[in-house]
Amino acid sequence: MLNIDLTGRRAxxxxxxxxxxxxxxxxxxxxxxxxxIHYLKDxxxxxxxxxxxxxxxxxxxxxxxxVSVVSEVQRLFDEVTLAFGGLDILVNNAGMDGAAxxxxxxxxxxxxxxLAVDLQAPYNCARLALKPMLAQQRGVxxxxxxxxxxxxxxxxxxxxxxxxxxxxxxxxxxxxxAGSGVRVLAIAPxxxxxxxxxxxxxxxxxxxxxxxxxxxxxxxxxxxIGRVAAxxxxxxASYITGTSIAVDGGMLIYPDFRHGG
Length: 261
Prior knowledge:
Blueprint: E1 10-13, H1 19-30, E2 34-39, H2 43-55, E3 59-64, H3 70-84, E4 89-92, H4 108-136, E5 139-144, H5 157-177, E6 182-189, H6 198-201, H7 204-212, H8 222-233, E7 244-247
Parallel strand pairs: 1-2, 1-4, 2-3, 4-5, 5-6, 6-7
Helix pairs in contact: 1-2, 1-8, 3-4, 4-5
């Protein structure tokens, strides 16, 4: 039997007070990792995730920071290191899609904010995570991108640009550290049933339209992303680095073409 075993590993999952982040954190904890739950504003939600992990026999603690700010990331890593004694796994999950606006009508400040959260922040965190990982010759960095690293999305040019950039950052970073025992990967989720897109999947017409874009005909569940993240962080994935794993129910195989062109 193959078991995902992260016993003794220490993980930081950014943006893990809800949605995909909390599912990833729970999966890591279930596999035996001690997990740092990161949040920006909602401490109660972060504390709830910590409580759920502890109720299941795991180890977790909540930490606050704006990961788009270099000084706050330094404080975050100092606090996590003090609490856990080091870091073995980083999941750059915190992100935002921003307000919908075509480029000609967009707000430069809003565009820059999406890039700061979705691309600058993963760099900020990866830069500090690499220091202990390289020293111990072991570690895994997982960047959460999106199917929109591949698929254009009108009205969301900042988001798609950031996710495509994060994909190339993943590959470049993996190339830089490939001989060091550190692996760097990306997970590209498709449409996942989380609170952030509830307005779509709670609307029958919106859900039907979305399902048509997915070959498997349904939205994914957060724990389906969590399990993939736990697997990729484990030694079972020891020969995987520098690539994006699409977890999208077949969105990237263009289901509209299943009956021909």
